[in-house]
Amino acid sequence: MTQRITKAVIPAAGLGTRFLPATKAMPKEMLPVVDKPAIQYVVEEAVDAGLSDVLLVTGRNKNALENHFDRVAELEATLERKGDTAKLEKVNESTELADMHYVRQGDPLGLGHAVLRARMHVGDHPFAVLLGDDIIDARDPLLTRMLAEHDRREATIVALLEVDPDSIHLYGAAAVEPTDDPDVVRVTGLVEKPTADVAPSNLAVIGRYVLRPEVFDILDRTEPGKGGEIQLTDALMEMAADIEGTGGVYGVVFRGRRYDTGDKLDYIKAVVQLAVDRDDLGPELKPWLAEYVTGFDLD
Ligand code: UTP
What we know:
2 domains, alpha/beta, five-stranded mixed beta barrel, 299 residues, binds uridine 5'-triphosphate
């Protein structure tokens, strides 16, 4: 029988060098997207998909992440005294969201290494991985779809996004075969950050995974790959070959809204898009934006 997945692992120990100097003393996962740190959107997504046991893999500067999901007695007392229940609710939202756990990565030796640090907590069960700087719009649920696909196929599931061939070198690219479902493909191979001319497709692996516990043994013996880091992609490649009968790898092709908050341009787009859609900000922001862009010369 399929094991129900209950645990989510969120790697948030990267150095965030693309966002320096903002990330010099603060993890990039704490950058505010409108008025919430990126990491809160990601934890909310896990909880919405039914995964309320959340393990954050943290690195240096971990205090801000832990504090965000913890109580702040002084602040709560002040807001209570003032009778400001709206703000108090906002403060408490992240505290009450999930059953949070933390593990340190030590040296940031790559995403594969960060996932391996979850082994003790996860044990011998399938689990979900959500990258802490990758936001999936709550109106386009992806993880729920991936969990259902895992139940059906008992295999590793990755999320794929069709990207412009010019930007495939920023991602892992998947070689795929069709299945009987138009939104699901079988992954036959993966190439980490290929140039457009050697990329097997323009289907990019994005930051959501449903992994089988066998991945830990594979990661344990995976040598550092591209960039000297232990790559999750390398372990997934082995899972795709399905030598040990672990069901192979399938990809759910995502056609919804996704924001990569670790990238400066995407981060700015995320803030604007999400703010425009908000009832408290959109009505004032939209006309201002419309007026602002009329002055642009796009040549
Ligand atoms: P990235 O490659 O986007 O993270 O990793 P980075 O290395 O922090 O980014 P730049 O390129 O220097 O700006 C994707 C996810 O994996 C985590 C990151 O925190 C991010 O959520 N990660 C990466 C780790 O947890 N540990 C690592 O060793 C590397």
